[in-house]
Each structure stands twice: as structure tokens, then as C-alpha cells.
Write a structure and sequence with these properties.
Helix content: 25-40%
Largest sheet: 6 strands, parallel
Number of helices: 11
Strand content: 15-25%
Strand order of the largest sheet: 9-8-10-11-7-12
Structural class: alpha/beta
């Protein structure tokens, strides 16, 4: 038996005993199959939870009991509940799911529920998972023009889209405009088939994906059709003035200085702008200065324009992404 992880075959328990179980330090499992998936082969998943949060786990008679410091027990319980949700939704659980869940909970910011972003779907909220993300959300709330610079996987675009939807739902914004420069990431794609919408769609796909992750598909279509949400290439912003809008420029490192000026001057009354990008991944032709790098130097000391810098520690994708980003910095 592994120290700190004690397991026994699941047997059905009387529902009446639930009320006598400490709610904050125990998990009740539904059946043998659920217990088997949650524990993992040779209790590997439980050992990962135990070691990550420095607690003791005792599994007996369909009840998973946690013992240890309050913070560790609470974090372990949150992780186990998330893992059970995966099991009950997918019918499966992999080691990568366990590792990612542990990392998410470890990165979770104390007090983050107060910064939860309210979305359209009932009881759906987006919460910051790192202190950097929490600062990012607060900066967007308090400023009309925000630049967010950081590596891949830090939630720059995702959180900006979540905030835009929240502002739309609350009525603070009347519409959302999402723009991206149509620049190929080091590849020559040639002449893409189809009309103009078909040609630019691949560049805009990440923005569609972010919205689809936070709204019902039917609602997304309705809002796109009515132009409450507009997703377009940066070149289409010329000549427009956008009032009462939440405007996002994604992948801004790939716009030129002239394009950045054109975009920023679209800002109308009662509007908010968020510009996101990674200045280490510029795909512009050689010798062309990135509009994001230029803006960073040009506006750093201008009042009412805020800069947020996310770091490797704010990466919330697969845990290997932090190592990958670090490796490319060598």
C-alpha cells in the first residue's frame, strides 16, 4: 500500500450516511466504475493529487476522504470535483487530464471569484487562473485602451473576448468588433479558394473559436447575423468610427505601424479597445517594424493607456507550453 493513499474496493453505501460526512473533506463516488477511473491505474491519479497538495487520501466504501492542511484539502477537493465532471461528461479520464487540472488549481488566484466574468450561458463564468490574468481583467475594467503583451497560452485573446461578451451582456457595450491582421505565420498559402469571406476565414478562426466556447451556437449565429458581433480582417477597419463598442485587435504584433495608427483612431465615444499580441512572434516581412512594438514605445507614458505584460508563469495551456516557451528564449 502506498503511503498516504489508501484504497479499498467500492461497495454501495447507504444514502443516509451522507449527512454525517464532512462536506469539505470528503467526496462520495457513485459506483465502482467511477472510482476506478478517478483513482487511476494502481491509484496513480490519487498519488498525483496527494503529492501536489501534500495531503493524505483515504478511499473506503465509496467515500474519498482528505486529511491535511485546510488549503491543501480545499485545493484537492476542487481538483477531484473537476476530475469527476470530466468522467461524468466523457466517461474517461487520462493522466494528462489529471496533470492539467492540478496545474489549473495550483495557478488559481486566491480571491478570483470576485473577478469572475459573467457570460451569456446560465451560471457560466470565466475566472482568472493566475495573478497576471487577474491584473489583466482589472486593467480592462478600469481603462478604455489596454495593450496586453505576452507569450502563447496566457489567455490574452480568450480573456479579452470573455470581457467583451460580459460588457455586451451588461449593456455597457452595444456591439463587439474583433479584428486580426491577415498575415501568414511563416508559410506561403498561395491563392486561397472562395470569396473574400472564405479567404480570410482561416485567419479569423481563433476568434470564432473563443466566442463559440462561451456562447450557445445558435446565439453566436444570431449575433453574427445581426452584427452585434463582427469579426473582420484589420484592413476592413479603415474609415470607420466605432461608438459604444468593445473592440479587440488580436495578433497585433503582425500589424504595421500605419495599420496600428489606423486601428487606434477608430476609437469612438463610449468604446473600449483591447490590443493583444506576442512581440516574440512577429511574422511581418523583414525590415517592417511591428505596430505593437512601436506602440509599446510610443504610448508607454501616455495617461489613460495601460500596458499589461503576461509571462511564462501565466501560461494555462498544457504544462509543456511553459517549457516550450522557455526553450525558445535560450
Amino acid at each position: 500500500m502506498n503511503q498516504g493513499v489508501e484504497t479499498q474496493k467500492y461497495v454501495a453505501i447507504n444514502e443516509d450516511i451522507k449527512e454525517f460526512l464532512p462536506a469539505k473533506d470528503a467526496i462520495i463516488l457513485k459506483n465502482d466504475d467511477e472510482a476506478s477511473l478517478l483513482y487511476g491505474s494502481h491509484d496513480k491519479n490519487l498519488r498525483l493529487i496527494r503529492d501536489a497538495f501534500r495531503i493524505k487520501l483515504v478511499a473506503r466504501n465509496g467515500v474519498l476522504k482528505m486529511e491535511g492542511e485546510k488549503e491543501g484539502v480545499e485545493a484537492a477537493r476542487t481538483s477531484l470535483i473537476k476530475l469527476l465532471e470530466i468522467i461524468r461528461f466523457t466517461g474517461n479520464l487520462g493522466v494528462k487530464d489529471v496533470e492539467q487540472t492540478i496545474m489549473d488549481v495550483q495557478n488559481y488566484v486566491e480571491g478570483a471569484p470576485a473577478q469572475a466574468i459573467d457570460l451569456f450561458q446560465k451560471e457560466m463564468f470565466i475566472r482568472p487562473k493566475t495573478q497576471g490574468q487577474a491584473n489583466y481583467i482589472e486593467t480592462i475594467r478600469n481603462n478604455d485602451l489596454v495593450f496586453c503583451i505576452g507569450p502563447a497560452g496566457t489567455g490574452k485573446t480568450y480573456l479579452a473576448v470573455a470581457m467583451a461578451l460580459s460588457f455586451l451582456k451588461s449593456g455597457y457595450a452595444k456591439r463587439i468588433v474583433l479584428a486580426r491582421p491577415a498575415v501568414e505565420a511563416g508559410e506561403k498559402l498561395g491563392y486561397l479558394p472562395g470569396d473574400i469571406k472564405d479567404k480570410v476565414s482561416p485567419y479569423l478562426r481563433p476568434l470564432y473559436d473563443a466566442i463559440a466556447d462561451m456562447m450557445d451556437v445558435g446565439q453566436v449565429k444570431k449575433y453574427l447575423d445581426s452584427d452585434l458581433i463582427e469579426i473582420l480582417p484589420l484592413a476592413y477597419m479603415r474609415g470607420r468610427t466605432l461608438n459604444s463598442a468593445f473592440i479587440i485587435l488580436d495578433e497585433a504584433q503582425n500589424c504595421t505601424v500605419k495599420q496600428m495608427k489606423t486601428f487606434l483612431t477608430r476609437l469612438g465615444t463610449k468604446s473600449k479597445v483591447v490590443v493583444t499580441g506576442d512581440i516574440t512572434q512577429v511574422d511581418l516581412p523583414g525590415g517592417e517594424l511591428s505596430g505593437l512594438i512601436d506602440a509599446q514605445e510610443r504610448f508607454m507614458n501616455v495617461n489613460n493607456i495601460a500596458f499589461v505584460y503576461l509571462a511564462k508563469s501565466d501560461i494555462v495551456r498544457h504544462k509543456l507550453v511553459q517549457d516550450i516557451v522557455a526553450a525558445y528564449e535560450l
